[in-house]
């Protein structure tokens, strides 16, 4: 999307002042001549993480398009690299971008990739503003910042919320893929209380495959339901989320209780793919609510979100996800930091400036970086219901501030 297309889009939105009103003073001046810079974006281009990667690319590119293709007053060339699906492919992508002289890096979907590139980024002294992957183990970093959240936080927020609201005698069953879900499950137990008798034993660990089939989770679900839960807490995303929801729904009416999860479970295209098993023959929601916790909901009522969500829907014909929002914010914090870093910024100067950007007026609500370089931010409870004619994640209320 070029600048002309961006201005046409903003005119359609009634927000033509946005280009001049956001970021540094130089951005609104078409004659501003900051030195050109390169930003490297790392995201998967195939496999199970492709959909999240597309959202990350969309969010960052939309910010550039609506801000004159500039960050901090400098014309930007966005250089993309495929992170692949493991640490080695991620390392190769980062090394390639560093050779091209990028001022900063962004993106990264897979937590394994984030852990695998940690030392490369720190040794190169080039800031990385990660917009998704944020494992708990990633600590004591200087050049890695994240605009998403630490992986145990959704579980902590939802666990603390449910602890106060589930009645005595409830039985909460935890189920998730083995290995990749450990941070989330531990966060939930921390928030709910590890010794709370309402937790129905240890989690049921499922096959961690990124491409599950139509019966991958059947035996695990049967094992889970044998414990007679009154509520289920799970952690699945993408294709795995689609298959888990479909396979769990086969066990109606044996289980019609609530399903709780981090927002991944119903994010992106998942709801469209599972709508048939969530609705009856008259397109009404079947019993058994699905509620998720996220740092973002596309229906949040604030000015930053009205601008972002409207632009995103008009450009991509879908509502924005938390992945796209976090990438938009990664561009926004880079915009501020590069502007603070001066006329000829170096990666080290940008990294220092990232600690000075202060509060971010984000579509998720105002947030700021904490000492570990992750957001201190609000968490929202969402429920799957109709928003007009569309099945959507509708915000119920704010349940926590973490970070």
UniProtKB/TrEMBL annotation:
Protein's organism: Micromonospora purpureochromogenes
Keyword Signal: yes
Protein name per its UniProtKB record: Branched-chain amino acid transport system substrate-binding protein
Span of domain Leucine-binding protein: 36-388
Source lineage: Bacteria, Bacillati, Actinomycetota, Actinomycetes, Micromonosporales
SUPFAM superfamilies: Periplasmic binding protein-like I (SSF53822)
Xref: InterPro entries: BCAA_transport, Leu-bd, Peripla_BP_I
Signal peptide per UniProt: 1-20
Annotated family: Belongs to the leucine-binding protein family.
Cited Pfam families: Peripla_BP_6 (PF13458)
Top-level taxon of the source organism: Bacteria
Keywords for the protein's UniProt record, in alphabetical order: Signal
């Amino acid at each position: 999307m070029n600048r002309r297309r961006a201005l046409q889009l903003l005119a359609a939105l009634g927000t033509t002042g946005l280009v001049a009103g956001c970021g540094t003073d130089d951005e609104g001046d078409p004659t501003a001549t900051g030195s050109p810079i390169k930003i490297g974006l790392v995201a998967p281009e195939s496999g199970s993480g492709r959909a999240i990667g597309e959202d990350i690319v969309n969010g960052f590119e939309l910010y550039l398009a609506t801000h004159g293709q500039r960050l901090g007053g400098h014309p930007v060339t966005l250089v993309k690299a495929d992170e692949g699906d493991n640490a080695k492919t991620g390392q190769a992508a980062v090394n390639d971008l560093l050779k091209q002289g990028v001022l900063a890096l962004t993106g990264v979907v897979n937590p394994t990739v984030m852990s695998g590139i940690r030392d490369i980024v720190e040794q190169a002294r080039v800031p990385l503003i990660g917009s998704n992957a944020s494992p708990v183990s990633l600590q004591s970093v200087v050049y890695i910042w994240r605009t998403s959240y630490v992986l145990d936080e959704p579980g902590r927020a939802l666990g603390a919320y449910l602890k106060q609201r589930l009645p005595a005698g409830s039985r909460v069953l935890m189920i998730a893929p083995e290995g990749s879900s450990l941070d989330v499950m531990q966060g939930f137990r921390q928030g709910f209380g590890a010794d709370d008798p309402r937790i129905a034993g240890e989690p049921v660990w499922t096959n961690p495959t990124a491409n599950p089939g139509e019966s991958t989770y059947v035996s695990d679900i049967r094992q889970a339901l044998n414990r007679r839960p009154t509520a289920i807490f799970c952690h699945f995303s993408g294709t795995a989320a689609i298959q888990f929801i479909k396979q769990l729904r086969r066990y109606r009416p044996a289980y019609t209780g609530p399903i709780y999860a981090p927002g991944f479970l119903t994010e992106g295209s998942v709801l469209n793919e599972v709508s048939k098993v969530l609705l009856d023959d008259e397109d009404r929601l079947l019993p058994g609510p699905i509620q998720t916790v996220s740092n973002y909901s596309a229906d949040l009522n604030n000015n930053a979100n009205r601008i972002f969500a409207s632009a995103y829907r008009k450009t991509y014909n879908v509502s924005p996800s938390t992945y796209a929002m976090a990438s938009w914010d990664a561009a926004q914090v880079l915009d501020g930091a590069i502007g603070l870093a001066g006329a000829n910024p170096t990666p080290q100067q940008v990294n220092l400036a990232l600690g000075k950007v202060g509060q971010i007026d984000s579509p998720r609500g105002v947030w700021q970086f904490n000492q570990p370089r992750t957001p201190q931010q609000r968490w929202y409870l969402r429920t799957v219901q109709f928003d007009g004619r569309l099945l959507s994640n509708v915000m119920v209320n704010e349940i926590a501030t973490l970070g």
